[in-house]
Design brief:
alpha+beta, single chain
Length: 253
C-alpha cells in the first residue's frame, strides 16, 4: 500500500526526459513504461521491446514512477498539463480515495464516437472553449496504440462540465460529431445498483407474503381455474326468460 502511494502515472514523454523532469522532486526508485505500441504484432510484445521494434508513429504511452517517499508525490503532480514534445502530459495518482474519485467525476465528462485516429490534443482543442482542462484521457489498444473511440476529459472545476453539456450537440473532431455525457463516479454507480437490488428484494418479499396469506374462496376459484357461474353467467339473447310460477298463498278470512 505504501508503495502505491508513492507511485505516479505519466502519459507521453521519453525515459531521459521524464527522469530529468521529475528528478528534482526526490529520489526515483523506478521508472517503467507501459502501453508501448509495437511495430510487428506477429513477433509479440517481449520480442519487439527487446529488439526495439516499436511503432514510431505512436504519440502516446504510459509511464509509472515510484518515488523514495510519499512527500514527493504532491510536488510531482504540479507537472500535470505541461508541454513535452508538443503534447500535454497527464500526471495523476495511481490510488485515489473515494472522495477524490467523487470529486473527479463532478468535474469530468465522458466522450464517445471519437475518431480512432484522433489524439488527445485534438480533443483538447475542441473543448478548450469550455474552460481550463486538467487532462484528456483516451482509451487505446495496448498493442496497436489505436484509440477505442471513447475517453474522458477533466476540467479544473464543474463550470467546464456545465458549458460542455450546453454545446454537446455542436462539438466535432475531424468531421465527426462527439457524444458527450456527464461522468458518474463508481460510488454513485454502486449506490444506484444497491438501490435497485433493494427494490427488487422488497418486491420479491411482497410477492411471497401475498402467496403465503390465507386465501379466500374467491381466490381459490381464481387460482384453481374455476369460474363462479352465478357471477359470470353469459346472457343468451335468443333464449326467452322463463316466467316464475306463482305459488298459491293462504289468506285468512
Amino acid at each position: 500500500k505504501q508503495w502505491y502511494q508513492r507511485r505516479v502515472a505519466i502519459t507521453a514523454g521519453k525515459r531521459k526526459q521524464l527522469r530529468k523532469l521529475f528528478a528534482g522532486f526526490g529520489k526515483i526508485q523506478s521508472l517503467r513504461f507501459r502501453s508501448v505500441a509495437i511495430a510487428d504484432l506477429k513477433l509479440g510484445r517481449k520480442v519487439c521491446l527487446k529488439t526495439n521494434k516499436v511503432n514510431e508513429n505512436a504519440t502516446c504511452k504510459n509511464a509509472y514512477i515510484v518515488f523514495d517517499h510519499e512527500g514527493c508525490l504532491e510536488e510531482a503532480l504540479s507537472k500535470n498539463g505541461i508541454l513535452v514534445n508538443d503534447h500535454h502530459i497527464r500526471v495523476d495518482r495511481i490510488v485515489k480515495s473515494k472522495q477524490q474519485i467523487k470529486d473527479d467525476s463532478k468535474n469530468s465528462i465522458f466522450i464517445g464516437n471519437i475518431p480512432f485516429a484522433a489524439s488527445e490534443e485534438d480533443i483538447r482543442l475542441a473543448l478548450e472553449q469550455c474552460g481550463e482542462i486538467e487532462y484528456v484521457r483516451l482509451l487505446r489498444d495496448s498493442k496497436t496504440n489505436i484509440g477505442k473511440g471513447f475517453g474522458y476529459v477533466k476540467f479544473a472545476d464543474s463550470s467546464g462540465v456545465m458549458f460542455a453539456m450546453k454545446i454537446k450537440d455542436t462539438v466535432e473532431v475531424n468531421g465527426r460529431k462527439l457524444r458527450i455525457q456527464r461522468c458518474k463516479s463508481k460510488v454513485t454507480l454502486e449506490n444506484t445498483k444497491k438501490a435497485k437490488e433493494l427494490k427488487t428484494k422488497q418486491k420479491d418479499e411482497a410477492n411471497k407474503s401475498f402467496r403465503g396469506r390465507k386465501s379466500k374462496s374467491s381466490d381459490k376459484d381464481i387460482f384453481s381455474g374455476k369460474v363462479n357461474k352465478s357471477k359470470n353467467k353469459k346472457f343468451d339473447s335468443n333464449k326467452r326468460p322463463s316466467k316464475k310460477k306463482k305459488v298459491p298463498t293462504a289468506t285468512l278470512r
